[in-house]
């Protein structure tokens, strides 16, 4: 009788333990499920919003440069790969690309969703083979090339310009080249072979230069502000005579004659003219 009673008590205890363990297990499962859900909500809440659509800074036949955004990375292959650089080069000419940007992953935030895609086409390559420039005229220091629609021009050491007219130093040889200009759809053309042209005497003063026409102009250089940028150009032959250095002459200087200019800064172009008869001790 006692043994039966003990068996019943043991069975009851086992049932109670199993029930309590099941409850604990269910509670643990519920807690884990809630934890996973909370983590997902937290991750979603910390994800940055997608950035704006990429903006183009420049495009050529083989390169696309975007406007950089701090913290962003960029993709040109539909998100298969991302790069920190906002420059894409070694591209194919006359080809359409789709570019995305997104905020990159950090230690505290995941990567954002991609932006709206930018669809852009690289420029085509100019098919025109440039000719060697042709001279239209040389008038003193002014060289004019024959103009070609859609072309730009340059002399060695200068910048590309739309005008085919150049005002340069006298009696100097320059190399000129030309090329097709860049357009909205076609990249800048290849540079032509050069042509060498020599200028003659300056007849038109370049902007900012100072013409020396007389003895007084020459003497006045000493009173000019010292600057390495000043460009003096002799525009006439200047001939001094003995009377200039006599007691009543303009350059007597106590019998010492011409007073040397103690310090010269700038550039002096003789322009094919001469200064003669100058006397000084």
Question: How does this structure look, described?
Answer:
The structure is a single chain. With 281 residues, the chain is an alpha+beta fold. It is built from 2 helices and 17 strands. It has helices spanning 2-46, 215-219, and strands spanning 56-59, 64-66, 72-75, 87-88, 96-103, 118-121, 135-139, 142-145, 151-155, 165-167, 173-180, 195-198, 210-212, 231-234, 238-239, 267-269, 275-276. The strands form 6 sheets. A 3-stranded antiparallel beta sheet has the order 1-2-4, with no helix packed on it. Strand 7 (135-139) and strand 8 form a beta hairpin. The radius of gyration is 42 Å and the shape is elongated. Mean pLDDT is 86; it is low at 27-31.
Blueprint of the fold:
Elements: H1 2-46, E1 56-59, E2 64-66, E3 72-75, E4 87-88, E5 96-103, E6 118-121, E7 135-139, E8 142-145, E9 151-155, E10 165-167, E11 173-180, E12 195-198, E13 210-212, H2 215-219, E14 231-234, E15 238-239, E16 267-269, E17 275-276
Parallel strand pairs: 13-14, 14-16, 15-17
Antiparallel strand pairs: 1-2, 2-4, 3-5, 5-6, 7-8, 8-10, 9-11, 11-12
Task: Give keywords.
single chain; 281 residues; three-stranded antiparallel beta sheet; 2 helices
Counted by DSSP, the helix tally is: 2
Q: Strand-residue fraction? A: 15-25%
Q: Roughly how many Å is the radius of gyration?
A: 42 Å
Main sheet properties = 3 strands, antiparallel
Poorly predicted tracts of residues: 27-31
Q: Could you give the order of strands across the largest sheet?
A: 1-2-4
The structure class reads: alpha+beta
The helix fraction, in percent, is 10-25%
Q: Roughly what is the average pLDDT, rounded to an integer?
A: 86
- What is the helix/strand order? HEEEEEEEEEEEEEHEEEE
């Amino acid at each position: 009788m006692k043994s039966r009673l003990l068996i019943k008590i043991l069975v009851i205890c086992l049932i109670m333990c199993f029930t309590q363990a099941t409850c604990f297990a269910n509670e643990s499962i519920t807690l884990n499920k809630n934890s996973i859900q909370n983590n997902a909500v937290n991750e979603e809440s910390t994800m940055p919003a997608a950035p704006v659509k990429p903006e183009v800074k420049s495009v050529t036949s083989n390169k696309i440069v975007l406007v950089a955004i701090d913290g962003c990375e960029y993709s040109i292959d539909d998100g298969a790969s991302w790069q920190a650089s906002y420059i894409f080069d070694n591209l194919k000419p006359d080809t359409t690309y789709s570019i995305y940007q997104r905020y990159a992953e950090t230690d505290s935030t995941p990567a954002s969703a991609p932006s709206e895609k930018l669809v852009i086409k690289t420029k085509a390559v100019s098919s025109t083979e440039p000719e060697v420039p042709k001279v239209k005229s040389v008038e003193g220091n002014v060289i004019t090339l024959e103009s070609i629609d859609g072309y730009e021009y340059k002399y060695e050491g200068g910048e590309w310009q739309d005008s085919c007219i150049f005002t340069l130093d006298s009696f100097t040889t320059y190399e000129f080249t030309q090329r097709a200009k860049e357009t909205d759809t076609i990249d800048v053309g290849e540079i032509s072979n050069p042509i060498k042209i020599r200028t003659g005497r300056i007849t038109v003063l370049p902007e900012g230069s100072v013409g020396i026409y007389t003895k007084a102009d020459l003497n006045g250089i000493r009173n000019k502000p010292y600057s390495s940028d000043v460009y003096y150009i002799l525009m006439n032959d200047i001939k001094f005579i003995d009377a200039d250095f006599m007691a009543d002459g303009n350059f007597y200087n106590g019998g010492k004659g011409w007073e040397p200019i103690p310090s010269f800064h700038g550039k002096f172009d003789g322009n094919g003219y001469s200064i003669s008869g100058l006397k000084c001790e």
